[in-house]
């Protein structure tokens, strides 16, 4: 396993060698046509980037040469110097020296001496015919050609490769199952080897798609500065966990959602400087954008020390909008009340926006996270601040799932939304207000037969009775939008990684299923969509 330092060093080397190749090309173009402004601009940019990257990695001598070269190209660009004569000779020598220094870093060797070059570059800046020797021609004749160890690949090519790997995994599982049924030892051995190879291939392809979360997080200081300036607020942004890795496509999908949360935090979450001072808070608000890992998930959090969410105001508004009865609303805990903020259109209410400073467009943010099989959590203390947590899978290609059986058919449910599995007896279940309820880990959870939920049509669910509960009940506790729901199934099967494929027409319009997967037996297995199931239950129980 490579260390982070090794990975950064390899990336630096690849980019530096690529920059060196581009410098060599552009300086030759400039020699042919000293008026080539595009080549000159590109040389200036390359030197500037190499200077910054080298200094960031601690290769200060490379950064110093690049800095001096950048200065000269700046003077040429501003027409204060001409690319000709000894100036051109020194700049060619500078590019060659940079190449030699980069190669020395890659070979873990001492960097070549650059004092004479720096002295000549300083002379050129001061307007002083530099000190040249006769070794340059010999060095040019013996120059080595280097190729980068890094290959840049378009994301769509990696997407295609990952899809092929997914198909391979499905066939692999079928072959493994068949080999076990046939019982041929040679076939079983070959199948086991195929399993190991495809497993390694799958994770290698997934690893190739990983990028640092910092590629997105590092873009937010400017966003925060601009919004804070427009709102006349003082906000300090702290970033952490930039080196956490995640699938590039996941990062792309959550970009707008994260942008929305950060803008809302600054624009609505923070009080004005006067309000903060009156509340005894520092005038400057603190915003933290962080990433961390939790088991197989990546957590990205947006935390502010602003005004927080007024839960009682949200509770009243939920009753006014008919989302919950007044009696039921009184029984909801704070997290269940805050979940109403994710309902479509709910946050458009002026009162909630003014009091909590939260909610506008949170349903859109939630949909983006749901599309990935992720979760969006919110925690808040009135007057102290709010934290939004995006719970994301590391990869969207292969997902952990729990397989179960219902009416002799196999179904899958993503582990991302699976809280726990329990087996309960009739005495453990109670009927409250026409709903089956069970106490699971100290919490009352509504329970419903998945068979009834899937096959009851569009009307409301009939009131539950104890009489319908006979024998041991296998129950999957799912969690969506801070709401838990127990689904009664026929029996649990096993936990395994699955490749989810989209539903084909016309089944793709059925919201309850998020796709299909093919089991090792060749059986098509429907994958349940927990958000859709939860919404269906809430709609039908009214």
**β-sheet strand percentage:** 15-25%
Largest sheet: 6 strands, mixed
Total count of domains:
4
Which parts are unreliable, with pLDDT below 50 for 5 consecutive residues or more?
Answer: 348-360
Helix-and-strand structural type: alpha+beta
Give an overview in words.
It is an enzyme of class 2 (transferase). The modification Phosphohistidine is found at residue 48. Residues 1-105 form the HPt domain. This protein is of the alpha+beta class and 542 residues long. The chain has 4 domains: 4-141, HPT domain (Four Helix Bundle (Hemerythrin (Met), subunit A)); 155-208; 220-393, Heat Shock Protein 90 (2-Layer Sandwich); 398-540, OB fold (Dihydrolipoamide Acetyltransferase, E2P). Helix content is 48%, strand content 22%. The chain is built from 19 helices and 18 strands. The protein has helices at 4-32, 37-57, 60-77, 85-106, 115-125, 136-141, 155-182, 185-208, 214-217, 220-231, 248-269, 273-278, 311-320, 326-331, 334-338, 350-356, 362-371, 450-455, 530-540, and strands at 210-212, 235-240, 245-247, 285-294, 297-304, 375-381, 385-393, 398-406, 409-414, 418-424, 429-432, 435-440, 443-449, 473-480, 483-489, 491-499, 513-518, 524-528. The strands form 4 sheets. It has a 6-stranded mixed β-sheet with strand order 10-14-15-13-12-11. A hairpin with a 2-residue loop joins strand 8 and strand 9. Helix 10 runs parallel beside helix 11 (248-269) and helix 13 runs antiparallel to helix 16. The longest helix is centred in the N-terminal third of the chain and has 29 residues, at 4-32. The protein is flat.
